[in-house]
Design a protein that fits this description.
42% of the residues lie in helices and 19% in strands. With 159 residues, it is an alpha/beta fold. It has one domain: 3-Layer(aba) Sandwich (Rossmann fold), CATH 3.40.50. It has a 5-stranded parallel beta sheet, with helices on both faces. The structure holds 4'-phosphopantetheine.
Amino acid sequence: MKVAVYPGSFDPITNGHLDIIKRGAKVFDKIVVAVLINIDKKGLFTPDERVKLIEKAVCDMDNVEVVSFNGLLIDLLKERNSRVVLKGLRAVSDFEYEMQMALMNNKLDSEIETVFMMTAAENSFLSSSSVKQVAKFGGSIEGLVPDCIIEDVINQVKR
Ligand code: PNS
């Protein structure tokens, strides 16, 4: 069984992430969506809250599991018997950052391959940070995040 791990901060999950999960689930037998810690980012949601939001968004998908992991991505891959990291690429601006991570993971474990999917054009401007900004200042986040989590995001930025 070909298992791919789709890692990220997912703070919160956006429609761009969801699109990659849906397309990934058609290519691989199973997708493990993994909420990991990015030490450069301060979170709005706790890792457990992010997992719950993603679970809501993927509830109709049989071959998708959502986990959180406090450690190195390569260790999660070992735990899950996977060699494949799935990532979305939005624009050239993502490339350097993603390449650095892919090469680092491959340096840490040479068995690991990172597979990139191009983000759909309509989501290419979308990021969790911009969603938070829009929600914080009262703009509409409809169409930016899965419908079932809109209220959660609005309530959280108001706290
Ligand atoms: O959505 P993000 O913030 O771009 O995702 C980055 C993330 C969480 C995948 C990355 O920071 C990560 O893999 N963190 C876990 C620690 C790790 O394995 N670091 C080594 C790769 S640089």
